[in-house]
Design brief:
The complex is a heterodimer of chains A (about 775) and B (about 450). By secondary structure, chain A is mainly alpha-helical. Chain A is built from 33 helices and four strands. Classes of the chains: A mainly alpha (about 775), B alpha+beta (about 450). Chain A: One of its GO terms (biological process) is rRNA processing.
Chain lengths: ~775, ~450
């Protein structure tokens, strides 16, 4: 910094100098102004001097002056013309007195007020300053590389070349644009693809799919995806359910199922008739065909093998009789000509005069149902037995057991519940038959009561039942709209009397009344929605069932596990803890034989004794020896058979001090050699190597294995990554500012050099001059 | 009855193709794999031994020059191309893959003092004892054309070295002063001096490209800034520096090859103390070149050997020599950091592997994994005496060996004397100068 300051001061000095140079230019101007005045004064002075020279002293002085003094001397300033001496005080005199020199004074003052100017620096000095400034600047520029250099030095791995060339990802369309099918096979495939409007190139989408993709916004897409997911989930539920049902072997159940299906089909048909008469007609035709087939066949005619056998038993067995009757009824049913619903309605309306035409079909249905034995009764029985079975056999595996139990219970839930409903309904029907007064209210009340009961028993079925009810209502409500509101109120009254949950339903109902139009529109979609709703219901069902079944199952499970655990854990514990004799007892004959053989083979080896002996020897060898300094024959008689006396021996025996206790003193089956092994020492590191600060650090690094024998593949790869990776055949360029995220200098070095013409020209000249000298 | 069968997924056990390796299920239970340290130690020992067994660094000798090879240059775009200039003024271009000379030019009368390629690789420059700078096309002349330089600049004095800017059409020559030339002009756009001496080499900084370093015969190294057209700093060493080389990954680091058998790595911001003094050569170091990774450099010496030094170590990790190789004048590390070339007095250019025991060619993934593992093992156990001994063992020609012994004795004697002097003088009166500081005479600002 001092250098910079120095250079600055030198520059300042030079500027001041320039100012000084300017000053003299002004000065003469001002003096010329006063010239006339000073001339007059000088003459006056001369006159005065001439007068005073009349005095003797002066004259002599005057005479002393030679002619030569007139000439210009370099030591004296002489005034022109005469030989008078010019005194400095004379020159300064007028400055003080004359006021017209104020400007000069002012200028002089200004100059005085400024500091004295330093001498311009020596050229070498200036150059040095320049160098220092440049060096500092360059050092600063370079110090931006410090973090990068440090990072690269410490890097775990450096991959060269540093600037990775990003592989350009060209869409396959671009790649394939120039490609044409040449071989006949290719052409054929292409033709096929084009015919089916299949996409040839990468985004494997048909035009339709593309359009849909474009059309869909993100939210739409999300919704759609969610929908699809739901559908998939539902499908899987259904599949699971179907599989479960398929597994059920009970004939009765299947029979009931079939009936249920038939009923459902009938219902559907009714609906279809209203919505789409043409389709209904077709259905009808199908049914007609089925009827024809039935009539043609001998099925359900009580002519089969089974029927004959039953017929024998029918006399004594009530059930058999019933079964036969059932079959006949079925035949009748099937062969009966199906009439259009409207006709049946009319007919039934005729039979039951006071029955409301609106509710008639429902009632009719119920009656049909009632004619047949209630299938759910059988179902209940079977499930009961099944449950009993499951409870009876605890030998089954815990897992499968739990699974099955949950399954069975799941099924039971709705089944039992529905059965109760049906019972209720039957009771009601009988009541109604007795007194036809409630007939109007009842069918409407039926779903409600059903619901209430369902909520009382199991809330989870509510969704399902609601759906069912909705359907019923929907079929009716188109007509209901025309019916007076009074009727609705009447209907609702009994509902209000019942339990609380009905309130909720009622609310819903009011809503549905309002949204009748919408509902009617939705009607056509409801078929689609139904499976989902059902599945949801199922889904809901599952959880509480599980909760209910959980503790019981758990208990069972625990029991099972305990048993197994006992067995499992016992055997290894026996193996590990028991004494060898017990093992032998447990072992098979073969193993015993083998052992015997081994024993015989190594009969002579007593390993334990050998080891003990070896250890004793090692201990002996490691003990410090006593030094016996007795000299036989010294002070005594010596010779063959003569021993030095005990006294002497005792006297000259130097007892070795007891060494430190052996490390293996308390370890019975180990020999620890405490001697330094020279052979091992040759492989040992003597001093702590450089980067480590503590021997433990070093030992730890040595003790962590890096091989794939001790590490997983991933860890092995990570541990053995080389520090520097170079790609073969790739040129590694020097690091660039752009590579590491720095801004590269925008100006080129060349342009900077060329923009510096002044300095260059000086140097140039110098160089040229030098060259010319050479 | 349900029969329970042991079933396995064949995908886990059966190979998809015959070429696949058999799947070997592993149990990583440490109790099953005891003695990890001794086993790894043995593996490391074997790896070290094998490394020495396979250490065959010499690849090829390119002969054809009729005088000593004085300078070498790498092609900036092609790994296979190398240029060399000889003491009889002949320039040859070599193809390394074919190991053949593909072009010969009689470029100068007298020595070819320096050679450098343009950053784009289309042309190259040579300077010679005949006071000329010549620019040549990289491609040979067409049929019937004469092999003539693109441009020739006639100078007043001899040029002793040349280097090209890394990005721009600018080159620098050195002789009595450092000249910066625009390729388009016949006069230098800038010339920089600091005192009067003959400058032996000039080098552009590859990262901060406006910086230059030069070394002169009056034992100094001078740094220049091209933009400000001024020298920056000068360091005077004990003996003459023959050449310098900048680190291509660390902008402020350069290494100087000195006559006093040592190499000095400097941080250019603090020239008063070298970062590292590299000593192993037993004669003047004539040339130095960095590996493109910036982690190592190779030096050529008058003692007929080349050595590879890690940047942060004062001792060399490798020494290459052959019976027939004489004083090595120039050396270059190829741009893929795999090979080393050296040109020597006896007219040959030799090609060496940078890693003596490295297997050339494409490695399979298993081979690669094995070499990586071995490398790591060697690194892990490098301090163990046996491994250290084996990995450090090199055969040396008798001349070098005896010289090393001699110098060791001399050094020991000097050290002893110094110790004695300290012992017998007033405490504090004799200053102990560190090895790094010992060789620096002065830093001139």
């Amino acid at each position: 910094m001092s250098a910079i300051r120095a250079s600055e001061s030198s520059l300042l000095a030079s500027s001041q100098q320039e100012e000084l140079e300017d000053l003299p230019k002004d000065y003469p101007l001002s003096t010329s102004e006063d010239e006339g005045d000073s001339d007059g004064e000088r003459k006056h002075q001369k006159l005065l001097e001439a007068i005073s020279s009349l005095d003797g002293k002066n004259r002599r002085k005057l005479a002393e002056r030679s002619e030569a003094s007139l000439k210009v001397s370099e030591f004296n300033v002489s005034s022109k013309g005469s030989g008078e001496k010019l005194v400095l005080s004379d020159l300064l005199e007028p400055v003080k007195t004359v006021s017209s020199l104020a400007t000069v004074k002012k200028q002089l003052n200004r100059v005085k007020s400024k500091k004295t100017v330093e001498l311009p620096l020596h050229r070498e000095e200036i150059e040095r300053i320049h160098r220092q400034v440049a060096f500092n600047k360059t050092s600063q520029v370079l110090s931006k590389w410090d973090p990068i250099v440090l990072k690269n030095r410490q890097a775990e791995q450096l991959v060269f070349p540093l600037n990775k060339q990003q592989s350009a990802f060209a869409p396959i369309e671009h790649v394939l644009s120039g490609w044409k099918a040449r071989t006949p096979l290719e052409q054929e495939i292409f033709n096929l693809l084009h015919k089916n409007r299949q996409p040839v190139t990468d985004p494997l989408l048909t035009p339709v799919e593309k359009a849909s993709l474009k059309a869909m916004s993100l939210e739409e897409a999300k919704m759609r995806r969610a929908e699809l997911q739901r559908a998939r989930a539902l499908q899987s539920y259904y599949e699971a359910r179907a599989r479960r049902e398929k597994k059920i072997k009970s004939k009765k159940y299947h029979k009931v199922l079939k009936k249920g299906k038939a009923k459902q089909a009938l219902k559907d048909f009714e609906k279809l008739r209203k919505v789409n008469p043409a389709a209904a007609l077709e259905e009808l035709e199908k049914l007609e065909k089925a009827r024809m087939m039935e009539r043609m066949s001998l099925k359900h005619q009580n002519s089969g093998k089974w029927a004959k056998s039953k017929a024998i038993m029918a006399k004594y067995d009530l059930e058999a009789r019933q079964a036969m009757q059932e079959q006949l009824a079925r035949n009748k049913e099937l062969t009966q000509k199906i009439q259009l619903a409207s006709e049946s309605e009319e007919e039934e309306g005729g039979t039951e005069e006071d029955c409301d035409p609106l509710v008639s079909d429902v009632v009719n249905e119920v009656q049909v149902k009632a004619n047949r034995p209630n299938p759910w009764m059988f179902r209940n029985h079977s499930s009961d037995t099944k449950e009993a079975e499951t409870q009876e056999d605890p030998e089954e595996l815990a897992g499968s057991m739990a699974h099955e139990a949950s399954e069975s219970e799941e099924e039971e839930g709705p089944v039992a519940e529905e059965e109760i409903l049906l019972k209720e309904f039957e009771e009601r029907r009988s009541l109604r038959q007795k007194s036809g007064l409630n007939q109007i209210a009842e069918p409407v009340g039926r779903p409600e009561t059903k619901d209430s009961s369902s909520q009382a028993i199991l809330s989870e079925l509510r969704v399902l039942s609601q759906k069912l009810k909705k359907e019923n209502r929907q079929s009716r409500k188109q007509e209901v709209s025309s019916v007076k509101t009074v009727l609705a109120v009447q209907r609702e009254k009994p509902a209000q009397e019942e339990e609380e949950p009905l309130l909720l339903q009622r609310l819903e109902r009011a809503q549905t009344l309002d949204k009748l139009e919408e509902l009617s529109k939705e009607g056509c979609f409801q078929n689609k929605e139904l499976p989902r709703a059902a599945a949801e219901g199922q889904c809901l069902e599952r959880n509480p069932d599980n909760h209910l079944g959980a503790p019981k199952e758990k208990k069972k499970k625990e029991q099972m596990i305990d048993l197994q655990n006992l067995l499992n854990t016992k055997s290894p514990s026996v193996k590990s803890l028991a004494v060898p004799t017990t093992i032998e007892e447990l072992e098979d004959e073969e193993e015993r034989a083998q052992r015997q053989m081994i024993k015989e083979a190594f009969a002579g080896d007593d390993v334990i004794r050998d080891f003990l002996k070896e250890k004793r020897e090692a201990v002996e060898a490691s003990k410090p020896k006593d030094v016996d300094l007795t000299l036989p024959g010294w002070g005594e008689w010596g010779g063959v058979g003569l021993k030095p006396s005990a006294k002497k021996r005792r006297r000259f025996l130097i007892k070795a001090p007891e060494g430190p206790p052996r490390k293996d003193k308390n370890l019975p089956n180990v020999i620890i050699n405490e001697k330094r092994n020279i052979h091992a020492a040759a492989h040992q590191v003597q001093a702590l190597p450089y980067p480590f600060t503590h021997h433990q650090q070093f030992e730890r690094t040595i003790q962590t294995p890096i091989g794939s024998t001790w590490n997983t593949q991933r860890a092995f790869q990570k541990l053995t990554t080389p520090k520097i990776v170079t790609k073969p055949g790739h040129i590694i360029k020097p690091i660039k500012a752009e590579d590491v995220g720095y801004r590269a200098s925008s100006r080129s070095d060349l342009s900077v050099v060329q923009r510096n013409p002044k300095r260059l020209s000086i140097r140039h000249k110098k160089q040229l001059k030098k060259n010319s000298i050479d | 009855m349900k029969v329970k069968m042991l079933s396995r997924n064949p995908d886990n056990y059966v190979r998809e193709t015959k070429l696949d390796l058999q799947r070997v299920p592993r149990n990583y239970d440490p109790t099953l794999h005891p003695f990890e340290v001794p086993r790894e130690y043995v593996r490391a020992l074997n790896a070290t031994k094998l490394e020495r067994v396979f250490a065959k660094p010499f690849l090829a000798s390119l002969d054809g020059h009729r005088d000593g090879v004085n300078c070498l240059a790498k092609h900036p775009k092609s790994l296979a191309t190398v240029l060399s200039g000889a003491c009889d003024g002949e320039v040859r271009i070599w193809n390394l893959t074919k190991r053949k000379c593909i072009r010969t030019i009689q470029a100068h009368e007298g020595f070819v003092r320096g050679i450098c390629t343009r950053f784009c690789g289309t042309s190259f420059f040579t300077v010679g004892d005949d006071k000329t700078v010549k620019q040549w096309k990289m491609d040979g002349p067409g049929y019937g054309e004469e092999d003539e330089p693109l441009h020739t600049i006639l100078g007043k004095t001899v040029y002793t070295g040349i280097d090209h800017h890394w990005k721009e059409p600018v080159f620098a020559t050195c002789g009595q002063q450092v000249d910066i030339w625009d390729e388009q002009r016949t006069n230098p756009i800038c010339s920089m001096t600091w005192g009067f001496d003959s400058i032996s080499s000039v080098k552009f900084n590859p990262i901060e490209t406006f910086l230059l370093g030069s070394c002169a015969s009056d034992r100094n190294i001078v740094l220049y800034d091209m933009r400000q057209a001024t020298p920056l700093e000068k360091v005077i060493l004990d003996m003459r520096t023959n050449t310098i080389c900048w680190n291509p990954m660390e902008a402020f680091i350069f290494t100087a090859a000195n006559e006093d058998y040592n190499l000095y790595t400097f941080d250019m911001r603090a020239l008063d103390t070298p970062v590292m003094v590299h000593m192993d050569h037993v004669s003047a170091v004539l040339d130095v070149d960095y590996s493109p990774t910036g982690k190592e450099f190779v030096s050529a010496s008058f003692d007929k050997s080349i050595r590879i030094f890690p940047v942060d170590k004062s001792r060399s990790r490798e020494v290459y020599h052959t019976k027939r190789m004489q004083h090595v004048i120039c050396v270059k590390w190829t741009s893929d950091s795999k090979y080393i070339m050296c040109g020597s007095d006896e007219m040959n250019i030799r090609l060496w592997k940078a890693n003596a025991s490295e297997k050339l060619g494409v490695l399979t993934s298993r081979e690669k994994a094995a070499t990586d593992y071995n490398q790591k093992l060697k690194e892990k156990f490098q301090h163990h005496p046996h491994i250290k001994r084996i990995s450090r063992h090199r055969h040396l020609p008798k001349s070098i060996y005896s010289q090393i012994q001699e110098q060791r004795i001399m050094k020991e004697a000097r050290r002893r004397k110094e110790l004695n002097r300290i012992k017998h003088s007033k405490p504090g009166s004799v200053q102990i100068v560190s090895e790094k500081k010992k060789h620096i005479v002065a830093v001139v600002k």
